Amino acid sequence: MSHIMRIARSRFLVLVVVVLLFGSVTLWAVLARQQKKEPPTPGPMLEQGYLDLDTPAFSLRLVRSSQTAAALKPKGAGDFDFTPGDLLVERSKDGYYHLGDIDLRLREGTAGEWKSYSTALSRKPVEALATSAQILAAANLASTLSSDIPLQITRTWALEDGKLTLRFVLKNKTAESVQIGALGIPMIFNNTDLRCWSCQTGRLLSRLTIPYSVHAVRPALRSSAI
Fold first, then answer.
1. Strands 135-140 vs 151-160: parallel, antiparallel or unpaired
2. CA–CA separation, 140 vs 147, rounded Å?
3. How distant, in Å, are the alpha carbons of 59, 108, 171, 179 from that of 225?
4. Could you tell me the pTM of the whole model?
5. What are the mean pLDDT values of the chain's consecutive 10-residue runs (226 residues total)?
């Protein structure tokens, strides 16, 4: 009986050793692949560099070609960034959303086909517009939207009562009414950093207020549920 138990114990120990060895080899293979992983390459949207803007509460960096946020850092918080700026190069390809993008679902008239539009799907450099003491950056978004969109859309980053404000203005380019079935302004923030769950970040979040507004300009724009 004791002989059988010794054999069983030996087999168990061999099994444990095999499992540990297999696990070690697998972990080593994963680490090796991570070490060999090539660094991400910048997408075309980063080719024109950045715009660095200053507000009373934030340091704002925009990607020059898209005028979307590359960094949003509260004053007095060191290097803390509300955006996933550490992943900007990796996220600089088409299809990634950034703060300042807009999605719409529209149709012309009352019986036309619903069509979707997004500034993030196929990026092209936007047309920069005039700025002022209160308008930090402004752009016509036509070039980064499909050419058949019936709206002219401009976006501004501005100061209102000393507070950073994001504004979109939608203007109907056609003689027909345009129905807006859906409108989305993605709020892209950094949830990849453990600091986002710290007490300090809770305090910083209380300072993050970016009013945003959408203004419709005639001819008629009508909201409609799809």
1. antiparallel
2. 13
3. 38, 14, 20, 9
4. 0.75
5. 49 44 50 65 95 95 98 90 92 96 94 94 97 96 96 96 93 93 89 53 52 56 50
* Residue 166, both tokens: 């994001």
* Domain limits, the chain: 1-37, 44-223
- Cα distance between residue 42 and residue 44, in whole Å: 7
Q: Which tokens belong to 5? A: 């138990």
